[in-house]
Amino acid sequence: MRPPLDPPPGRSPMPPPSRTNRRPAPEPAPASSSSRPRLPDGYWSASRGASAALLIVLPLLAGYEGGLASLGGDPALRTGVDSWIQQAIPPQWGLPAWAPSLTIALALVCWRVAEPGRFRPRWLPVAAVESTLLGAGLLGLYLLFDRWLAGLGGLVYLRADSWPSGLPIDPSRAIGLVGAGIFEEAAFRLGLLGLLYAALRVLHVPNALATAMAASGSALAFSLAHHVHEPPGDFAPSVFLFRWLAGVYFAWVFILRGFGIAVGTHVAYDLLVAAYPWPDR
After folding, report:
1. Closest CA to 242 of 254, 232, 250, 234
2. Which residues contact 148 (CB under 8 A, 6 or more apart)?
3. pLDDT tens across 49-76, in order?
4. pTM of the model
5. Closest by alpha carbon to 101, among 118, 83, 127, 121?
6. Distance separating alpha carbons of residues 257 and 251, to the nearest angstrom
């Protein structure tokens, strides 16, 4: 009788199991070369990118131009930066009045193509709530600012005297406020702030300081622009100061939350100011 450990006749003995005789683990499949980096998923990160800017700003642009067309397309209804652009375009070019809006829309589309990442349409209500809260925050700061200056003679309210305050808001005024929010953010934040920051970085200004200086400088231009065509003697330093602070506020919303939320915040703030029941002074 053979010992139980002996191999059967005609077979070679099997080596004892060892680490060296184990089969190597299969190597992971290489990543596809066609994949490209994407922004992290989630509302907070995605809402800062190009996809969010496109989905937020494009409907506002369409509503602005559609509203103007429904009111007869009167050029006088175009206010602020949009009206300045209309005046700067040579008449011989023959461009339609909606050309600046189309330019912004095409720029957003190009930005979206160049930047991966996806902002889901179901997040639009969240963006609307965030923009409204940020706009209400600025309105609250304005009310505190006005109370703080009450002993100095008070702060002139930002609404035009020719417009009644409170609800409902006149449709032509609401359309103008939407356009003002879009074009002012495109000009002073997306354009001027970005150019100032780039110029400061070329001069080797540290990143944090360049960001703060660009935000403050673009806010200064933003405040000055609101005093263009102002009747002589109507300039109020307190109003200028608050508009500069508002420009800084919008600048940091743009820096931290992106262009889409900045536009939404500006539009929400303007509409809240128009709807607020200001007391007569």
Report:
1. 250
2. none
3. 999 999 999 999 999 999 999 988 888 7
4. 0.80
5. 83
6. 10
Q: What's the CA gap between 53 and 186, in Å, rounded? A: 11
- Report the range of poorest mean pLDDT among 16-20, 28-32, 220-224, 235-239: 28-32
Torsion, CA 106, CA 112, CA 115, CA 118, rounded to 10: 170
Question: How far apart, in whole angstroms, are the C-alpha atoms of residue 217 and residue 209?
Answer: 12
* Cβ atoms of residues 218 and 188 within 8 Å: yes
190 residue type, one letter: L
Cis link prior to 279 (omega < 30° from 0)? no
Which residues fall within 8 angstroms of residue 272, CB to CB, at 6 or more apart? 132, 135, 136, 139
* Residue 181 contacts residue 131 (beta carbons within 8 Å): no
DSSP string, 198-247: HHHHHTT--HHHHHHHHHHHHHHHHHHHTTTTPPTT---HHHHHHHHHHH
Query: Looking up tokens 């900045």, which residue turns up?
Result: 262
